[in-house]
Amino acid sequence: MANFKELNTNLNLVIQMMLENKNLCKLLTYDTPDALQKPDLIGYEDYNGLLYTRIFPYPKDITNRTEANSIILVGLDNFNPIGNTFVSNLLRFRILCHESLWDMNDNGMGMKLRPYLIMQEIANLYNNQRVVGIGKLLLANGGELITNNGSYSGFHLSYKITEFS
């Protein structure tokens, strides 16, 4: 029988790692081209204020979202039993940025796009890394360009667990 008891713990760990990444938090918090030059977030309330406002641990329809910002939908899915005790799954990220926030060219020196910067921070956290309780993660099937509505677009990333903790 498949065991799902660790899924909540594992997802909480993934989100905690995201909240501890200063650059990722700045890219999600500051809706300006110079987001990475802004001050680090300070304290528990600033970082945890991103949860359920910019980082969602569940699918969310943003079709009618009126504010211009960047969000990440993160979750575990594609469950497959391994023996009687483990469940293999994918760690998925949907990175969505309002079209007005893609361009990070605050000085006109080369193109920098916010979704690519967010993907790099996620890759730094998870790609080919061993995450305690989850295992070693590798990017699966590359990234896929997505659109959510007329104003939001971004990328879908999937990480496959290749070794189990």
How does this structure look, described?
Helix content is 24%, strand content 34%. The chain is of the alpha+beta class and 165 residues long. The protein has a single domain, classed as STM4215-like (2-Layer Sandwich). The protein has a six-stranded mixed sheet. Helix 2 packs antiparallel against helix 4. The longest helix has 13 residues. The protein is globular and about 55 Å long. The two termini are 19 Å apart.
Largest beta sheet: strand ordering? 1-2-3-6-5-4
CATH third-level topology? STM4215-like
CATH architecture: 2-Layer Sandwich
- Biggest β-sheet strands, sense, barrel: 6 strands, mixed
Count of alpha/pi helices: 4
Our count of domains comes out at: 1
Question: How many angstroms does the end-to-end distance come to?
Answer: 19 Å
Which spans have pLDDT < 50 for at least 5 consecutive residues?
none
User: Which oligomeric state applies?
Assistant: single chain
The gross shape turns out to be globular
Q: How much is the radius of gyration in Å?
A: 16 Å
Q: Class by helix and strand content?
A: alpha+beta
Average of the residue pLDDT scores:
85
Beta strand %: 25-35%
Elements, N to C (H/E): HHHEEEHEEE
> Helicity range of the residues?
10-25%
